[in-house]
Fold this sequence. Notes:
By secondary structure, the chain is mainly beta.
Amino acid sequence: MLVDTETHPPVPPELVSPVISKPKFAIFPLIIGFSVVIFVAAAIAVVYYQAKLSMAPSPSSSPSPTPSAMALASLEPSMEPSSTPTSTPIPSLKPPVISSPTPTPILRPTLDIRFGNPSASVKQTIDEGTGDGRVINREYTSIQAGQFDEVSAIWSPRVTVCYHLVSNEKVSGKDIKFSMSLDDKIVVEDNLGGYDQLEAGRIYDWCHDVTNDLGKHTAKLLLNPDKSLTENNYLNDLARLEWENLADNVAPNFTLIGPNDEGVAGTCLFPQFISDNVTPYADLKIEQKIDSADWIKFDGDRYCFIGLAGESHTYISRITDARGNANQQNKTFVLY
């Protein structure tokens, strides 16, 4: 086919841009690199954590101010064997020491019992036998030397020692022990439990009947003998009291009656109104003596002389009590 080159100019050839292919992204090497970074970081973390564990202190053994219920339960021994095996604790780890609260100490009284002034007294109590129950008290303090006259046994005389005590603080009576000795022999060991409480500053008495035996006696009261209470003053724990029971030294009393002219009976004399302050009548020794004869027992109600008028005679009457005190009276007369 023919082409008309004159009418239609030739078409220049079309410019064709060269095709540049885009570079492809390499994802596989990226994944490998990221994995390497993570692995290294993990290794570093493991090494750091192990180093931290090796540097951490062992569990503290100091007491916990507020022990937990779980810790207390773990320390409490089981009353029954468990059927479920429990894990054995690591031997190197000791359980924390749980300190129990310190008990509040019970304060014991500090004994400082001062014996009151006067510290003690000894008294004699008698019922004179009048039937009205009247009682006579004769009392001596430890400052004086007590002396008691002997009295009739039928009057039931009693000699009593009383100690007067003052405590420095409130204390239970049963906590104050004592021992009481008579003539260096312990006769009572007890406490002041008769008093529920001894209030500080008040005077309390402890009394005990002792002895009517004649002679000198000593009574001692020792407080807190076992030292179970703390004492402020060990010089103030002993009270000593001395007294003497005197033997009767009063002779019997009587009146010599006569001489009386009783006719055919003769001239008679006899002791009358006989009495003694201690010895009963039945125990009195009553004697008589005629002129120069020996003493004989008076066992009648009178003694009568029978003789010639104008004869002179002497009649002597003597009465002696149980302590040897004698009363002697005599009369000299002429027969009618």
